Amino acid sequence: MNIGIIGTGNMGSMLTHAFITSKAVKPSELFVTNRSIHKANDLKKISPEIHVLDTAKEIVKHCELVIVCIKPHEIHQLLTSLQTDFKPDQCLVSITSPVTVSQIESIVPCHVARIIPSITNLALHGVTLVSFGNHCSTEWQEKLINLFSHISKPTLISDEVTRISSDITSCGPAFFSFLLQKFINAAVEETSISTEQATLLAEEMIVGFGKLIEQKHFSLKTLQEKVCVKGGITGEGIKALESNIGDLFEKMIKKTHKKFGEEVNKISDQF
């Protein structure tokens, strides 16, 4: 099956890397394009067998599955321009959260799904958030689940939890990377440890933490209980966190949802 990727920015490039690394797709089955074509050509450094095409129309012409990895406000114009190029037996996947599958189905005559990836998929881990269109066949649903199972754990979601699900899976790595860097900075400022050593220790800690959860040694709750001995040093640290964290995450979620709402309103006006 030929797979086309329109847009080779961060997510488009990540998916290309992940599909090839996981052997989910042969490089010769991948067709890519980008508005700045040199970014698409850069992907041939992964494998010379990748096909770089000049336009999105050419992608639709050559591929059974087309994955659109562009900004939300650009999707309506792109799909409108390609409306007559799609055939009913093709499948279109969008990776952007503000655009619903029903909005896409209102324009193109083919099978439609929304699959929101995460940067963690580059390591062939993490989740992809899946929503199928009303007219997406069982056959295409199975093909998509199988494809994305090579690089992630595909998880079906409903429209009403799209934003918070994306906050957790897609934005989460950036949020917790920010918090971990703050942890490292505080360690360096308050003690004599070097930035390099603190960073190494923190990175190894977070990798080990993930392995403990992945291998089901502990749940988040039981892991905290295991480390936090009553009256011990970790407990004092937890008290400090409890006293200072306040409603940090509630405020963060409100901010992301406000921005999401603004994007949804702009997209709705387009459609």
TrEMBL record:
InterPro entries: 6-PGluconate_DH-like_C_sf (IPR008927), NAD(P)-bd_dom_sf (IPR036291), P5C_Rdtase_cat_N (IPR028939), P5CR-like_CS (IPR053790), P5CR_dimer (IPR029036), Pyrroline-COOH_reductase (IPR000304)
GO molecular function, a single term: pyrroline-5-carboxylate reductase activity
UniProt binding sites for NADP(+): I6, G7, T8, G9, N10, M11
Listed pathway(s): Amino-acid biosynthesis; L-proline biosynthesis; L-proline from L-glutamate 5-semialdehyde: step 1/1
Role this protein plays: Catalyzes the reduction of 1-pyrroline-5-carboxylate (PCA) to L-proline.
Localization (cell): Cytoplasm
GO terms, biological process: L-proline biosynthetic process
Keyword Oxidoreductase: yes
Protein's UniProt name: Pyrroline-5-carboxylate reductase
GO annotations of cellular component type: cytoplasm
Substrates-to-products reaction catalysed: L-proline + NAD(+) = (S)-1-pyrroline-5-carboxylate + NADH + 2 H(+); L-proline + NADP(+) = (S)-1-pyrroline-5-carboxylate + NADPH + 2 H(+)
Enzyme Commission number(s): 1.5.1.2
Domain Pyrroline-5-carboxylate reductase catalytic N-terminal: 3-97
Family recorded in the similarity comment: Belongs to the pyrroline-5-carboxylate reductase family.
Location of the Pyrroline-5-carboxylate reductase dimerisation domain: 164-260
Keywords: Amino-acid biosynthesis, Cytoplasm, NADP, Oxidoreductase, Proline biosynthesis
One Pfam short name: F420_oxidored
Organism: Gottfriedia endophytica
Residue ranges that the Swiss-Prot or TrEMBL entry lists as coiled coil: none
